[in-house]
Amino acid sequence: MLMRWIAVPALLVTFTGLACAAECPELLQGSLQKLRAKESIDLCQRYEGKPLVVVNTASFCGFAPQFKSLEALNQRYKGQGLEVLGVPSNDFKQESRDGAETAKVCYVNYGVTFTMTEPQPVRGADATHLFKVLAEQSSAPKWNFYKYVVDRKGKVIASFSSLTKPDDPEFIAAVEQALASQP
């Protein structure tokens, strides 16, 4: 009889753990390696329940000066819980093959303090899981500096082309909508 009472709590703990893992939004399942660091980012652990801006970047793109505006956005809203995630990609042939050079452009040239990952594929069958789900919920990036605004439930509420600057009123309105969303 005692054995049954021990087994029931063990099963509850097991199923509760599975339920928690299953609650993570599809968008945030998986991990990405941080730029020039040994640290891997568990997307669910880091971003679940938080409003998020995801942008595919490229160091040698004409839109690279947007790093400065993205950092300003990060500084303006991080106190309200906004997270910005930059994902370098060479899908459009404008990213360095050297992570140190990518890091220099982001961190030294533009003063980026938001999280940047190691370069990732962001389009097609080879795209990292994050960008596959972004594409399913919206569309795949058509160029570098394509921006996605994600609500606290892991759903894309708006996406913006490279031409939309991070200080554009429509983009800011989407960010504020994500900030106001409920988990």
Description of the structure:
This protein is α/β, with parallel strands linked by helices and 183 residues long. It has one domain (26-180): Glutaredoxin, CATH 3.40.30. Helix content is 39%, strand content 16%. It is built from six helices and seven strands, in the order αββαβαβαβαββα. The chain has helices at 2-23, 43-47, 66-77, 99-109, 129-137, 169-180; strands spanning 31-33, 40-42, 52-57, 83-88, 115-116, 147-150, 156-160. The chain has a five-stranded mixed beta sheet, covered by helices on one side. Helix 4 (99-109) links the parallel strand 4 and strand 5. The chain is globular, with a radius of gyration of 18 Å. It starts with a helix and ends with a helix.
Relevant terms:
183 residues, alpha/beta, five-stranded mixed sheet, 39% helix, Glutaredoxin, two-stranded antiparallel ribbon
Task: Name the poorly predicted regions.
Answer: 6-21
N to C succession of SSEs: HEEHEHEHEHEEH
Strand order of the largest sheet: 5-4-3-6-7
CATH superfamily name?
A: Glutaredoxin
- % residues in beta strands: 15-25%
Structural class: alpha/beta
**Number of H- or I-type helical stretches:** 6
Oligomer: single chain
Report the span from N to C terminus: 42 Å
Just name the CATH architecture. Answer: 3-Layer(aba) Sandwich
Largest sheet: 5 strands, mixed
Total of domains:
1
For the record, the CATH class is Alpha Beta
- Tell the overall outline: globular
